């Protein structure tokens, strides 16, 4: 053997080790960026302790998506390894979040009538009942699991199908607008009526009154009683229940009727809901039980939109309720994975209804046969009952506030409260949710109602809470004038910033200087400090609406009681344009691409083009 060959062989182990280490390093880098390292979940959060995903009392290890539900490395074949997280599960069992009692809770005990009671460090307590077939069940066991997915997964339909569009209540618009001129133009109007009732006059559309904008699939459009000319086009339909007791059906493009209006006989003040599965089902509450001298019963109604016939209703004056006021301004949600409707009433009850829906689009047949479970409670913070805001949902946790000032997190599977928080006053503004790397949070604000006296002022309290524990993250206060009829404070639902405005949450607050003006404010999400603040000459109960342009910039619409619609830059709060829509706007606009739709006290529905 030659000396030279022996010398070359001496480098072989070094070369082998070098390339082996290099291969391992490159593999590790690839796995890290594709989220496949065993100590990282698909979003890059550490699984040890679920840092950033398990804030406080909850355990999210069973949840799907970015919470550790992807298959293990051992179970994957090479063809299954891909970049990015796996698709979110649509199985509620995978979406469930388990929870423990938060630190604020001090005890739980059974009461003699089948109720339970929880006690908290602040002295608060809540007693609660679960009723099946109107009978109290002491140890309720759900027959199936219900949980919502991410907000992007709420609806299979294009459009705005419920108040604020999804289960986080953060999507009052759909699509993207081509914004060139930064101008607003009224392109159509449609007349609506006015009525008298309960000692007042009700013109046009009112709070919260967000129109539904629905892009139906072709097969469903064909089986409904839509006008022939509208059935032939790729219809985006406006569905709008208003004060005059009618539900209007319009072509969003032209404002012309897409089918006959539907008279339900009584005023609707809140926002309806279209089935997010794309089924021809429409759901709506009722705001008054008197219209032009005619009196009747409160109902929450479900309509078959194949023929516009009512197929089911819940009684508002429910014998199981502690409050005998059966109105319903809340916009319900439907869990499409489990065929389950969840609704809140001003009678103080929460309804969970398995609909048992049967829909055959080819045959044009549709039926439901609901089975209903009810949640009833009493809070020590206030004896006043009634839920007027619309519930938000994070997986199997539901968030709502009541007229007495109790904010509540409810497990919709166990029908058991997780935590309660004393908001200090009536809260009609809908709670909004946000999930971040730091945890899950909610934004809420109250109004000046129970604390007020004639000629006095009180603070509207804007709060960010940990959604899993109920702990206060920050609070920002704004002094408001008390008025017995038109409340000050926050009646509108905030814009939770996304994309280019992801660092702020934007609230509009009524009656901050006088009984006619207000304040629009952007607060830093992390700290609650003011990023910008704008004085409003006219107060607003209408919820501001954010929408995205094709260029990736966020814009915002805000309507006020003087009847103006403002196109606003949410980076600064300044107007880009302003038009009149004839009268007070308590309702909230909806946006679909370049079209905004809203009803006003001018007794018209307006179609406004964003140019």
TrEMBL record:
Residues 51-64 have a biased composition (Low complexity). Residues 51-99 are annotated as: Disordered. Keywords: Membrane, Transmembrane, Transmembrane helix. Residues 463-555 form the Pyrrolo-quinoline quinone repeat domain. Pfam families: PQQ. Gene3D superfamilies: YVTN repeat-like/Quinoprotein amine dehydrogenase (2.130.10.10). The chain crosses the membrane at residues 12-33. This is Outer membrane protein assembly factor BamB. The lineage of its organism: Bacteria, Bacillati, Bacillota, Clostridia, Eubacteriales.
């Amino acid at each position: 053997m030659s000396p030279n060959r022996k010398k070359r062989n001496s480098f072989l182990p070094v070369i082998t080790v070098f390339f082996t280490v290099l291969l391992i390093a490159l593999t590790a880098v690839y796995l890290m960026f594709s989220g496949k390292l065993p100590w990282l979940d698909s979003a890059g959060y550490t699984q040890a302790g679920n840092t950033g995903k398990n804030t406080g009392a909850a355990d999210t290890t069973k949840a799907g998506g970015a919470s550790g539900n992807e298959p293990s490395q051992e179970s994957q074949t090479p063809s299954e390894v891909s970049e990015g997280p796996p698709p979110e599960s649509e199985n509620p069992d995978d979406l469930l979040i388990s929870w423990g009692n938060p630190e604020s809770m001090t005890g739980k005990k059974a009461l003699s009538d089948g109720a339970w009671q929880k006690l908290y460090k602040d002295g608060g307590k809540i007693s609660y009942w679960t009723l099946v077939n109107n009978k109290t069940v002491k140890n309720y066991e759900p027959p199936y699991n219900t949980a919502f997915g991410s907000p992007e997964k709420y609806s299979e339909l294009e459009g705005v199908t419920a108040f604020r569009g999804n289960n986080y209540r953060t999507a009052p618009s759909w699509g993207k607008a081509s914004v060139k001129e930064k101008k607003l133009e009224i392109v159509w109007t449609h007349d609506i009526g006015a009525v008298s009732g309960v000692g007042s006059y009700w013109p046009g559309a009112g709070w919260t009154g967000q129109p539904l904008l629905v892009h139906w699939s072709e097969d469903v459009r064909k089986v409904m009683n839509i006008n022939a000319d509208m059935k032939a086009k790729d219809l985006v339909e406006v569905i709008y229940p208003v004060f005059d007791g009618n539900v209007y059906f319009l072509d969003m493009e032209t404002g012309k009727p897409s089918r006959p209006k539907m008279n339900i006989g009584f005023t609707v003040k809140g926002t309806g809901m279209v089935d997010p599965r794309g089924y021809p089902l429409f759901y709506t509450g009722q705001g008054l039980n008197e219209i032009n001298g005619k009196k009747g019963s409160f109902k929450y109604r479900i309509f078959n939109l194949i023929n516009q016939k009512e197929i089911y209703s819940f009684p508002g004056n429910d014998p199981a309720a502690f409050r005998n006021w059966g109105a319903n301004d809340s916009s319900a949600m439907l869990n499409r994975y489990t065929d389950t409707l969840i609704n809140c009433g001003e009678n103080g009850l929460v309804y969970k209804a398995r609909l048992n829906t049967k829909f055959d689009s080819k045959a044009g047949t549709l039926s439901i046969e609901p089975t209903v479970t009810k949640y009833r409670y009493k809070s020590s913070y206030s004896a006043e009952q009634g839920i007027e805001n619309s519930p938000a949902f994070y997986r199997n946790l539901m968030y709502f506030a009541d007229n007495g000032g109790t904010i509540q997190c409810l497990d919709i599977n166990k029908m058991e409260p997780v935590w309660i928080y004393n908001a200090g006053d009536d809260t009609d503004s809908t709670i909004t949710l946000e999930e971040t790397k730091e945890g899950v949070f909610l934004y809420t604000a109250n109004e000046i109602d129970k604390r007020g006296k004639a000629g006095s002022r009180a603070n509207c309290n804007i709060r960010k809470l940990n959604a899993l524990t109920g702990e206060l993250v920050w609070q920002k206060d704004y002094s408001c004038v008390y008025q017995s009829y038109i409340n000050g404070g926050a009646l509108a639902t905030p814009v939770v910033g996304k994309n280019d405005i992801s660092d702020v949450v934007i609230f509009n607050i009524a009656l901050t200087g006088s009984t006619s003006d207000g304040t629009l404010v952007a607060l830093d999400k992390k700290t609650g400090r003011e990023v910008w603040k704008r004085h409003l000459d006219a107060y607003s109960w209408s919820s501001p609406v954010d929408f995205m342009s094709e260029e990736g910039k966020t814009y915002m619409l805000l309507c006020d009681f003087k009847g103006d619609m403002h196109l606003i830059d949410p980076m600064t709060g300044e107007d880009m344009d302003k038009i009149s829509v004839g009268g007070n706007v308590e309702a909230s606009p909806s946006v679909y691409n370049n079209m905004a739709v809203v009803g006003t006290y001018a007794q018209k529905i307006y179609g406004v083009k964003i140019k």
